[in-house]
Amino acid sequence: MWQAAKKNKKRGQSITFNTEHGKITTIRDMDYCSSCGKLFGQNDDKLGLDRTHRVTKGFIELATYVAQLIPGFENASETLLKLRNIEVSGTQLQIISEEIGAIVFDKQKETAQKAYENPEIAVPFVFEKDKLDAVLYIMADGSAVNTRIQDENGSSWREMKLGLTFLDKNVIMRENGKGIITKKEYVAYLGSVEEFKKFLFESATRAGYGKVKKVVVIGDGASWIWNMCNELFPDAECILDYYHLKENIYGYAKALYPTDEEKSNNWAKTVMNYIDKGNVDKAIKITKWSPEISGIKGKVVNLAKYIENNRERINYPEYKGKGYYIGSGMVESGHKTVIQKRMKQAGMRWSLEGAQYIAALRAKFESKRWNDVINIIYNEKAV
What we know:
Elements: H1 2-5, E1 6-19, E2 22-33, E3 39-41, H2 44-47, H3 57-69, H4 73-84, H5 90-117, H6 119-122, E4 132-146, E5 157-167, E6 171-173, E7 179-181, E8 185-190, H7 193-207, E9 212-219, H8 223-232, E10 237-240, H9 242-256, H10 261-276, H11 280-289, H12 303-309, H13 316-321, H14 329-343, H15 352-366, H16 370-379
Parallel strand pairs: 4-9, 9-10
Antiparallel strand pairs: 1-2, 2-3, 4-5, 5-8, 6-7
Helix pairs in contact: 3-4, 3-5, 3-15, 4-5, 5-7, 5-15, 5-16, 9-10, 10-11, 11-12, 14-15
């Protein structure tokens, strides 16, 4: 449209712009658009210049990569200057990376919405005999990110929900018993469960939901996780994270016997022993009938109720017999690497949009899906 309205030309104009290799200066003719009042270089397209920021797409990818990787936009700016001799402000890095993050997030949101609204397409029917003999693990957890917006209680902290999906066949076990996931996907959402569950559902379908024989959801006991599981993955086996349960039991025991460590530990070991042997009723009975319990109500989790509410999710002897993982440490570790390492440093406070956009980029990076970002920059970003 602007080509039809252009008038004046300015010939031989000098321009200096950032590329992924540093600054370049060149000469090109300029066309003036009478409609928008802007000047456009005749060879901007050939140079691959973005018309908004006057940098190359290669620089946009580099800037986005560094901005999501290094804690602090100013630190990212200093890194580019040191390693590539590229001078760019932290503010420009923030603008560019959040702009790309917004496109990444919007595309995720669109595809997640489609999958959620059309599950028959997202999860096509597969005969049981044709399903892959594998276990799909789905995990979810939340952690707080400090924002610039206060809620009605005066808190500026918001919960960033993180989901993780992977297949057991993509886990390599180390000698120390810890596993390395060679192929996984994280999804991050700052907001309600109603929206987050769509992202998690789409990630699960991409990982193989509907095509594998077994599905396991592991959570820390938060009711929103189990409600989400029941809606999205009704055929899944839901497991309460063993280590959260253990932590609650030992915390409860410490509150029961604050001055007697030996008695506290023995009490906790007794409850855990019943849990480990699958004797849930006895574990509940101890928590209900200990005479000291009345003095700690309100100070710790209602352990009897906690165990009762998760009765169907703590059959650990059976889970171990099936070879299932029983801990959600992988997604908790993911929170540290995906979110906290970049977004929860001293003095950091985020806009709600900026936090979401950087989290979307972080999830792509830690999922080893950075090519998704590159494709958006080169194919979706207008030049």
